[in-house]
Amino acid sequence: MAKRVGIEVSLAISEAVKLAKVDAVAAYPITPQTHIVEHLSELVAEGELDAAFIPVESEHSAMSVCAGTSAAGARTYTATSSQGLALMNEILFIIPALRLPVVMTIANRALSGPISIWNDHSDIMSVRDTGWIAIFVENGQEAFDLTLQSFKIAEDHRVLLPISVNLDGFTLSHVIEPHEFLDQDEVDRFLPEYKPAVQLNPDDPVSMGTVGVPEIYAEAKKCQDEVLKGSIKVVKEVFAEFAEMFGREYKVVETYRAEGAETLLMTMGSVSETAMEAIDKMQEAGRKVGLIRLRLWRPFPADDLRAEMGSVKTLAVIDRAVSFGGAGGPVAGEVRSALYNVDDSPYIASFIAGLGGRDITVDDFIEMVDQAEAMAKVNEIHEYKMIGVRE
Amino acid sequence: MIEVRVHGRGGQGGVTSAEMLAIAAINEGKFAQAFPSFGPERRGAPVVAFARVSEKRIRNRTKVYTPDVVMVLDPSVLSIVDVTEGLKSDGMLVINSAKSIADLRTEFGFKTSLARVDATHIALQELGLPITNTTMLGAAVKAAELVPVEALVGPLEARFGRIAAKNIKALRRAYAETEIELV
Predict the structure, then answer these.
(1) pTM over 0.80
(2) Could you report the predicted ipTM of this complex, rounded to two decimals?
(3) CATH value of A253-386 in 2.30.110.10, 3.50.50.60, 3.40.50.920, 3.20.20.300
């Protein structure tokens, strides 16, 4: 086992990007993503990373530059948060449509207003339908490992789609904790050089980003969705290869002490680890409660989710964003759709918690389980319940 | 698991002391976390930072609500912040103060075990600045079983470079000069 190194999670991500030998980084600093790109700019300035670091005047430009460098065949990375992601929005749609394997870290943060620099998932939820693969990490080790794996997934010629690696801003990005790093040789064995399928080259010109007239637009979009849905196969292959080489296993849907559980809590991101403490406490008290976590948000792993529903009677889904005017949190809505036509599907309770940096404590998780089980008993029709809110 | 809360003022290096503690613990083969009270940095305003040290992998990612150890880097926060909030009854309060333990108990009504050192005095002599984060680490590791004092030397050298030697001297002096009263 490699030695554990105590380092801030943001810096561990920068190290992963360095080990991936990216060719181009274009980014604009925004809290709480700043430390990642700050450290990358240092690595480039000190000659430790041979890449073009392209400072830009806005996130819209950052993502536009990423489109250009990736189209030219460069392994391309960026990072952002919240309002920065919102400002990228126009270009976010274009990157997957052009089949450009850009990797982006999103240090998840609430969207204004009121102005908040603190963590929730409203930023990533606002770009749900842009066509990016979206992965969630729960701790620094996963942030390091999955940043590296993202390049391999994105650049696979069966995929060629951008990936966002989502980590909770501050509550994960700014924590110093132990990491086991891989060395350059190990990474080189795992992650080959990026070979673009098509690239912009003046000596061999191609057109990218052309008009899609009504006779072709629908087919283009159908193709894009097929590729995104099909990428789950490659995600699983890359996870398996990484586990084989380095011993750390990842799944698109993860569970914790879920065998035989009648109630499952569902989480995404770093609150999952606190939720595990709650599960331990409830199981000690004899309760049949387990945890299920979505690692992959897009493509949505519906089949893998259904496969975990065995004995489950109640599913308590925790969202960290509001879908204003909608019938529940964005994750809960997705889960309800995935399980609607399934025989004996569980009762699904939708909770929204942890908005704008509010902690979700062990007691909060236990309260959600209590409430979900009570609601299931009477089959309560509801949209969502917000936890830990003053009303 | 030992949970630590550090009180100071923005710019005094409270976050750094939590970080040094976590890195020292990780270097010792333990598991640890350190994190700031997330938000905009406000120089001079009362701020807190947190650390956890454990023999096992740490999964709790909430703030520290019931610390085992509270470090107070700046005596001026004692009169404006309840530094004992959530402190376990068998916890340890480690204070930078020129006052005696008896006087601190009388003035603030502290009931838990208490350690004090005049860290500002040491920092002014050794560093020439009233920055007490590294000095107070010496007091904290003397008062509570967190990491051996020598485990902090490596992380301090890595962080402080050419001014590391002064900080390490301040750390060692505080370790020697800290007074502890257990209850």
Answers:
(1) yes
(2) 0.94
(3) 3.40.50.920
